Amino acid sequence: MTDRLPDIPGGWIDETVLLGDVRLNLTQPADPDVMLDDPLVRERFDRDGIMPYWAYLWPAAQKMAELLLTQISLPTMPTLELGAGLGLVGLAALARGMPVTFSDCDEISLVVAMENARQNGFTEVAARHLDWNKPWVEEFPIIIGCDLLFEEINHEPILRLLDKMLAEDGICWLGEPGRQAAQRFPQRATESGLHVIILDEQIHRLPRFAPGEFQVIQITKSEHESGFDFSAEP
After folding, report:
1. Was domain 58-220 assigned CATH 3.40.47.10?
2. Using alpha carbons only, how large is the chain's radius of gyration in Å?
3. Which pLDDT band, with edges at 50, 70 and 90, does 230 fall under?
4. Mean pLDDT calculated for residue range 134-163
5. What is the pTM of this model?
6. Distance from the first to the final alpha carbon of the chain
7. Are 25 and 119 in contact (CB under 8 A)?
8. Structural domain boundaries in the chain
9. Is the predicted pLDDT of residue 234 greater than 60, yes or no?
10. In the structure, what pLDDT confidence band is assigned to residue 194 with cuts at 50, 70 and 90?
11. What are the tens digits of pLDDT across the range 95-109?
């Protein structure tokens, strides 16, 4: 993987994102729509089914990043970010002192995420290509991600990945903006033997999935959870 930002349709811009008291510098595509309309991107989608949705700074990612920085107490343990995109959620974890491995199926996304980590001064970071259908033979005590459930076809691969890559006493947090396609995921996770709790933006437990609302789907491998104090304010 190269460490140089490639030329892309529309070019790059720099933006400062304010999350509570933390300022993060973020390099991102200047016009993601131009990228999605690029003939080479369309050709890749026809071939591999991959679109560069990572190019957008999704609102749910900003909410998830701010939550990680302001609402919960986190241990400084190895953390895997699924579908890193621009890396904002992982950057928030890095700002809390957590060593982070960015992962994505798109190599350009990983280059951008690493560039954003470097320009914010983070060093406890790595980036690796990850196909959800081909999990690594490696476990993480913490797995995070955001807005990953927008297509139901992704649900089973993510669940199989968590079965293999989430440590027995670990915890996974998936930020979710309440998309219709995600509504069945908590039940599917429960049916696969995982323990699921749904939390709102204030880390209060919800009785069920909340359509159209930002929430966090917390996943552990047992009802005893992880022993980490994830739901306490710092």
Report:
1. no
2. 17
3. very low
4. 96
5. 0.92
6. 37
7. yes
8. 58-220
9. no
10. very high
11. 999 999 999 999 999
Residue 7 CA to residue 108 CA, distance in Å, equals: 10
Task: Output the 3-class SS for the chain.
Answer: CCCCCCCCCCCEEEEEEEECCEEEEEEEECCHHHHHHCHHHHHHHHHHCCCCHHHCCCHHHHHHHHHHHHCCCCCCCCEEEECCCCCHHHHHHHHCCCCEEEEECCHHHHHHHHHHHHHCCCCCEEEEECCCCCCCCCCEEEEEEECCCCCHHHHHHHHHHHHHHEEEEEEEEEEECCCHHHCCHHHHHHHCCCEEEEECCCCCEECCCCCCCCEEEEEECCCCCCCCCCCCCC
Asked whether the predicted pLDDT for residue 225 surpasses 70, the reply is no
Residue 117 has pLDDT above 90, yes or no: yes
